[in-house]
Amino acid sequence: MSEAATLQIQVEHTQQSRLSQVDFNNLKFGQILSDHMLVAEYANGQWEDVRIVPYGDISISPSMSALHYGQAIFEGIKAYKFVDGTVSIFRPDKNHERFNKSAARLEMPEVPQEIFIDGLRKLIGLDHSWVPATPGASLYIRPFMFATEAALGVHPSNSYKFIIITGPVGSYYNKPLRVKVETHFTRAADGGVGFSKNAGNYALSLHPTKLAQQEGFDQLIWTDAKEHTYVEEAGTANLLFRVGDTIITPSADTILHGVTRRSIIEIARHWGYQAEERKVSVKELVDGIKDGSVTEAFAAGTAATLTPISEIGYKGQLYTLPDPAKREFSNKVLQYLNDLRYGRIADEFGWNFIV
Ligand code: COI
Question: Which domains, and CATH codes, for the chain?
């Protein structure tokens, strides 16, 4: 994609910033969008017309193939504001890598670094005032790509749109989670698209999640498609737990390999904890909660950050975990991640991309 290196990113500034209308002390997730967005078009085998324009509606064809056949992928990234006003994006290179893996699986084109990373820096540079300085808040970044060919035949689209929108957010979950182990519905099977961040994976989660919510749970723990024996993910995030001084997280080709999950594993190892990425059976998890050896369980993701799991429901039984406030590793690693992302400590891993 070397042609992208020569691409200029045109900028059209908004005539009417909406920034003054934002209550930065009362941010919900994903409801407020910043002034500008980056848009790029893919056609005739190359990316073109990369531009930053005022955030706004786009026009699409009713026969646009993403609407019918689901070639649609996305990412979630966050930018943070340091006390001195510096703006930093957390590990966008990892999201870029995953985005292109998702693209390859869905037979979509890769988005080159010149658009994904350099374009992102330029966009955040322009909308830097939208990055919240309020405690616990950040700028959520949503890069996404979808097929735009107007045609009803089933084939890879010959044109695509890549867009990055952003918006200030508070926390996604505001309390510890009660999660139900799903033993009927399936999120992903071997050879499928579970590892890719595509829209369909979220669509299929809505009905089973709604049923679990009607039973009083917040989210699901997905299990393997074949036997529903092994745990995979926690709702829209990855699942991690602690046994002794070991941090354990399910690993499989079917799970989404999250950047927060990866960062927590790297920090844990750096601190001298063992970290295991392996198959974890539901039995191992619930037996460990019963005998007290599982002392912590949490969901980790860009939106979720690190959210403690307080209770797990499995086959009609409830398994209660220790008080989230007393969990040593989860609280320590969350504090460390926050200190790092808000620039309060040295960035010893080199994860902050300063804008
Ligand atoms: C994220 O953590 O960024 C996600 O994609 C989760 C969700 C809001 C879909």
Answer: 4-169 (3.30.470.10), 177-341 (3.20.10.10)
More confident residue, 253 or 74: 74
Instruction: Reply yes or no on whether the pLDDT at 349 is more than 90.
Output: yes
Q: Give yes or no for residue 141 CB within 6 A of ligand 1.
A: no
> Does the C-beta of 143 come closer than 6 Å to ligand 1?
no
pLDDT of residue 174: 86
**For residue 2, pLDDT beyond 60:** no
Q: pTM surpassing 0.90? A: yes
Q: Which of 236, 238, 262, 305 to mutate to test the pocket of ligand 1 (most atoms within 8 A of CB)?
A: 236
* Cβ of 355 below 6 Å from ligand 1: no
Q: Are 170 and 29 in contact (CB under 8 A)?
A: yes
Alpha-carbon distance 293 to 8, whole Å?
56
- Which residue has a Cα nearest atom 5 of ligand 1? 76
Tokens of 134: 């309020």
Separation CA 241–CA 300 (nearest Å)? 10
Amino acid at 64: M
Contact residues for 43 (Cβ-Cβ < 8 A; gap 6+): 158, 159
pLDDT band at 6 (very low <50, low <70, confident <90, very high): low
Neighbours of 30 (CB within 10 A): 14
Is the CB–ligand 1 distance for residue 76 below 6 Å?
A: yes
Report how far residue 307's alpha carbon sits from residue 251's, in angstroms, rounded to the nearest whole number.
19
Q: What is the pLDDT of residues 132-142, one digit of tens each?
A: 998 889 999 99
Torsion angle, CA of 339/344/350/352, rounded to 10 degrees?
Answer: 80
For ligand 1, whether the C-beta of 260 sits within 6 Å is: no
